[in-house]
Amino acid sequence: MLVLGWSRKLKTGFLGEGFEALELHFLQIHRSKPVYGKHKTAASGDNLPKLDDRSPGPYTRSLLSPMNNLVYNKIADLVRNANRILLLTDERIDGDTTGSTLGLYHVLSAMGKHVDVFSPKAIPHTLQFMPGVEAISHDASLFEQDDIDLVIICDCSDGTYIKQFLPKMQRKVPLISFDHHSTNPRYGTVNCIEPNAASTADVVWRFIKFAGLPMNKAAAQCLLTGITTDTQALFSANTTGDAIEASAELTKLGGRLHDIVRHTFMNKSETSLKLWGLAFERLFYDESFDAIATAITLEDIQRYEANTEDIEGISNFLNAMLDETHEVVVVYRETDDGAVKGSVRSRGRNVAKQAEAMYGGGGHKLAAGFKVKNAHLKEDDGIWKIVKHLQSDQAPNFVS
Hints:
Layout: E1 2-3, E2 9-10, E3 22-24, E4 27-29, E5 59-61, H1 68-81, E6 84-88, H2 95-110, E7 114-118, E8 136-137, E9 150-154, E10 175-179, E11 190-193, H3 200-211, H4 217-230, H5 241-252, H6 257-264, H7 270-281, E12 284-286, E13 291-296, H8 298-303, H9 314-321, E14 328-334, E15 340-346, H10 351-359, E16 362-364, E17 367-372, E18 375-380, E19 383-388, E20 397-398
Parallel strand pairs: 5-11, 6-7, 6-9, 7-8, 9-10, 10-11, 13-14
Antiparallel strand pairs: 1-2, 1-4, 3-4, 12-13, 14-15, 15-17, 16-17, 18-19, 19-20
Helix pairs in contact: 2-3, 2-4, 3-4, 4-5, 4-6
């Protein structure tokens, strides 16, 4: 249990605890339970704490918290004392989760650590230019290695996907979560969450600077990629002075903004542009979201022989290009697993809360997403809606 000077309390995260007693000025941190793995705890007898127990971990940082140095120091201690570290991307692969993860990969490797990188999905071709991408594995057997003593995950807003892999762990090790999504439930043992940061790569960079870890050109390029892609090349509304300052620092260390923009924003295929054109034709007013929206079906993707990468960026582009009368943009698309995904962008309204309330989604204030399982898109007089799959004898269930 952690007690601050003004009697605020933070509960144990759902992955448990795992640290020695610590006293620091106005707070006290007491010995805690093991984190996760196959070994049972004497207190609970459970192999793995339930993912539904989403109370914050004992070390949780937010941007203006007086616990900043405590969290940074605890992470630095864990990193320095670890020999083999497993890094995880989010399942939603983008420039930020990949860039922040690979940035850490280069830094930790420079420290002489044995570093493995796991991603549950393939890395898009637009991100293949990043140094170290060849080190990313999709082999889940990595979790079974018995000498892993630290796990770090970057830019994963809910931690849901990792629950299928955690039971494979052979040892009780801490989980560090770096993130900038306001909806993050603080599922890690140590959480470095900064909702006001423009990207997770920015959060990681602040930690690296604080801890004085060894930087190199490759790490700078990866971290700069994370910041650049999540801020639309320092153009989007979530771009902060800290993000601009971090970008300048990383550029001085060898990051090349031109290469990042060329590979991630200026790298559209003919197929991609045709699909974008179709999306523009279908623009309509979405009353449920009070937003301008468009829709892309599986049939569209098959027709143009496209893939999900070809769809990426439409919501950001529309959010940037539409006039000031349009505050929110939503892009709906069908997925090959029988679901509908939504990408939401805003210039001011908190769409993360809206996406969470409507569809159980999440994200941060100006950029959010959601997924409706067992659903498809249906058009009626130019208006597209999400329809849930029901039994054949039931009427369609329109959810948007």
